[in-house]
TrEMBL record:
Catalytic activity: N-acetyl-L-glutamate 5-semialdehyde + phosphate + NADP(+) = N-acetyl-L-glutamyl 5-phosphate + NADPH + H(+)
PROSITE patterns: ARGC
Gene: argC
Location within or outside the cell: Cytoplasm
Active-site feature positions: 163
SMART domains membership: Semialdhyde_dh
Catalytic class of the enzyme: oxidoreductase
Gene Ontology CC: one annotated term: cytoplasm
Superkingdom of this protein's organism: Bacteria
E.C. code: 1.2.1.38
UniProt keyword annotations, A-Z: Amino-acid biosynthesis, Arginine biosynthesis, Cytoplasm, NADP, Oxidoreductase
Pfam annotation, one family: Semialdhyde_dh
The protein's name in its UniProt record: N-acetyl-gamma-glutamyl-phosphate reductase
Organism per entry: Idiomarina zobellii
Cited InterPro entries: AGPR, AGPR_AS, AGPR_dimerisation_dom, AGPR_type-1, NAD(P)-bd_dom_sf, Semialdehyde_DH_NAD-bd
Length: 341
């Protein structure tokens, strides 16, 4: 396949000091087709003026950018000089920030949940705020790169999926696409490392409190996100564990009576030419194999009509920053894996 060489594309990162923002800054800094215009935090952030590499010393060699406060002047400069803005901010912050950039004609790739759901009422129910920008909600494209490549390519606003939905949907969509599942509720149990909760201190992510524990039972905001994309009911239970990063999702689904082993293998063949998906029957993906990697590892196992699919990702990469890079690569006419391998 031939790819067109693009001129350098200028991007700004807002929320750059967070776990996701720092990963994205690192990836963009080493991406040959992207030019980093600036890294931003909130206007009155205590980290304004700090070097990103001082906050995240593991990237000190490559992250010399100073964090800048997102003042009105900074927003105007971004609008003037950047082509794409990445939002690595909280959901409500992203919803408040995105429209100004979009109205000015920039592209926005939002890594929060602020534009992922189609049903606006689910924002009050699952996110705890009333969504005021339904016009953009309607135009947002879901950035699951392997499944929505064509729409992502032309989208002005991309809503990058949540980390748990990425793991679950990458496992389930091949089965759904081939109509191999019954209508029975799909069950997803997933375990996440603690960076999934963001960089800000909280009691639940405090070292002394960490263990292995379920949370968000029946009501986690990723339940409607997975169900919306799968078009099927789902029972999703996230678990927080005492390791830094990675997600392992264990997915339980019921197969239609006529499904053969070959049907399953054929369904997962959809990933045969996708460089960042490693899907293999009988494999047992492990977090250690995907940490610091942009891959999703998938393994499927059946007993009669019961199917178990295992799916492992790095929550900060395929679950956020590297998936965002896949999206901009698609938009720039580059191979999805550009800058990631
Ligand atoms: N962590 C994960 O595994 C994943 C996270 N996400 C989503 O990505 C987003 C970022 O997550 P994460 O990195 O974990 O979060 P963090 O809490 O680690 O980082 C949040 C960032 O936003 C900045 N920020 C806060 N308020 C504002 C504001 N008003 N204007 C500009 N910047 C602001 C913070 O800096 P400061 O407060 O100093 O201004 C910080 O840089 C969230 O929406 C999250 O839900 C998505 C997938 C996976
Ligand atoms: C361990 C942990 O706390 N994980 C986060 C999910 C992080 C993620 O994917 O984020 P968004 O949908 O918020 O973008 C949570 O459960 O809220």
């Amino acid at each position: 396949m031939q790819y067109q060489t693009q001129q350098s594309h200028t991007v700004a990162i807002i929320g750059a000091s967070g776990y996701v923002g720092a990963e994205l800054s690192r990836l963009i800094q080493k991406h040959s087709a992207l030019k980093l215009f600036g890294c931003y935090v909130s206007e009155h952030s205590s980290d304004a003026g700090t070097l990103l590499g001082d906050l995240h010393p593991q990237y000190a060699h490559s992250l010399a950018a100073p964090l800048q406060p997102l003042s009105s002047a900074a927003k105007a400069a971004i609008i003037e000089q950047a082509d794409t803005v990445f939002l690595c901010t909280d959901h409500a912050v992203s919803v408040a920030l995105a429209p100004d950039f979009l109205q000015a004609g920039l592209k926005v790739i939002d890594l929060s949940g602020g534009f992922r759901l189609h049903d606006v009422n689910q924002y009050s129910e699952f996110y705890g705020f009333e969504h005021k920008h339904t016009d953009w909600l309607d135009r947002a494209v879901y950035g699951l790169a392997e499944w929505h490549a064509a729409d992502i390519t032309t989208a002005q606003l991309v809503a990058v999926p949540g980390c748990y939905p990425t793991a679950a949907l990458m496992a389930l969509l091949p089965l759904k696409q081939k109509a191999l599942l019954t209508d029975k509720k799909v069950i997803v149990n997933a375990v996440s490392g603690v960076t999934g909760a963001g960089r800000k201190a909280s009691l639940t992510s405090h070292g002394a409190e960490l263990s292995l524990q379920a949370y968000g039972l029946f009501g986690h905001r990723h339940t409607p996100e997975i169900a919306q994309q799968l078009q099927q009911e789902v029972l999703f239970t996230p678990h927080l564990a005492n390791f830094p990063r990675g997600i392992l999702a264990t997915v339980y689904a019921t197969l239609n009576d006529t499904v053969t082993d070959d049907d399953l293998a054929n369904a997962y063949q959809c990933y045969a030419n996708t460089p960042l998906v490693r899907a293999k029957s009988q494999s047992r993906p492990a977090i250690k194999d995907v940490v610091q990697q942009p891959f999703v590892d998938i393994g499927w196992h059946r007993q009669g009509n019961q199917l178990i699919v295992l799916s492992a990702i790095d929550n900060l990469l395929k679950g956020a920053a590297s998936q965002a890079i896949q999206c901009i690569n698609l938009q720039q006419g580059l191979p999805v894996e550009e800058g990631l391998l």
